[in-house]
Amino acid sequence: MLPLSRAAAAVLRTRPVQSRASTLSRVVIPTLPCRRHLHLEGVALAPVYFGGLFVALWTWKCCMLVIFQNKIIYMPGMPPNARWEKIEDYSNQCGGIKWREERTRATDGTDLALCVADLDIGQPPNGSETQNPDSSVYILYCQGNASSTPPRLPDLSSALCMLKRRLHEDAHTTRITFVCLSYRGYWTSRGRPTERGIRLDAAAALQWISHLHEKSTTRDGTVLGSLDAPRPAQVFLWGQSVGAGIATNLAAEHAMPSNLRLNSLILETPFTSIRAMLEVLYPQKWLPYKYLWPFLRNHLDSLTNLGLISSKYKDSQTSPRILILEAAKDELVPATLSQRLHDRAAEVGLDSERRAVSGAFHNDTMFRAEGRRTVSEFIAQRIECTT
């Protein structure tokens, strides 16, 4: 080994030699960011699972209510044998009133069933052999949302018999034709029920009445009967529950044929609108159903219809009178809704009266004699006032 100079030895002492290994140890190697995983304790899992299930079911039911609202509101298949009922099954309970089935078509081609009965009231003048009455009255009945027409015939027949006894001593002869409309999808009518479609059905039934009256008053252009000239026949629109909304729809939106005149509306156990019924049936704030009204395709808004009816007849000499018949023990529609209808009628200038059938539930006002008597007396008074 060569001896180092004193200066070189001093440099080596001040600047030590660095090895390659020590240099590599100082290199900083970048690392990927680590993900943090959420870990729930077993106790917290159950509330999360059940809370998610509740929200999912809540959302699912809201969607089902919106999508299937027609099937919820209109139930033509309840009870299960409703579409196979026959008039003959109830004919012996109708007190001698003869009912028959007629057919008509809506403007969209839907085939509809009508259940019709004729009732002649009053005595013709002595020695008169005419078979044509002095006046004609038509009652168009719009049923509730379930069952079919035949089971309703005994109670409706009883009301007609009461009406006949009430008008029996009248000097005029009157033919009352009672027409029960079976909406599309109900009884033997075709199609599926929707509010839009049922509006067409009600208009078709009214047009059928107009054609029937035209045939009964003329033959080959010749006027029949004791009148020198035919005058418009009186029409009563009678609706029960959902049918009350259909009746007000018809009165508000459809023009009466020239040979018919709207006399009165009979609203049996009515409600103001479908939206109002959502609030009644689901009053809890945490339930979402009453907030779904913007998605309704069925409205049956009788409250609005009363205003339209008033505007429609404001220039007429006579506006229709309204009977609001409520069930004192109605388990579905509260009395506040019929009171709102009564107040609305007064507000828009329509003459109305409100009556309650004591002890009656929503669907049995006509089952009770008081309900049938109230309706028959109302119709009789209106006929007497206008003949």
UniProtKB/TrEMBL annotation:
<feature type="transmembrane region" description="Helical">
    <location>
        <begin position="48"/>
        <end position="68"/>
    </location>
</feature>
<keyword id="KW-0812">Transmembrane</keyword>
<dbReference type="GO" id="GO:0008474">
    <property type="term" value="F:palmitoyl-(protein) hydrolase activity"/>
</dbReference>
<dbReference type="GO" id="GO:0016020">
    <property type="term" value="C:membrane"/>
</dbReference>
<keyword id="KW-1133">Transmembrane helix</keyword>
<dbReference type="InterPro" id="IPR029058">
    <property type="entry name" value="AB_hydrolase_fold"/>
</dbReference>
<protein>
    <recommendedName>
        <fullName>Alpha/beta superfamily hydrolase</fullName>
    </recommendedName>
</protein>
<keyword id="KW-0472">Membrane</keyword>
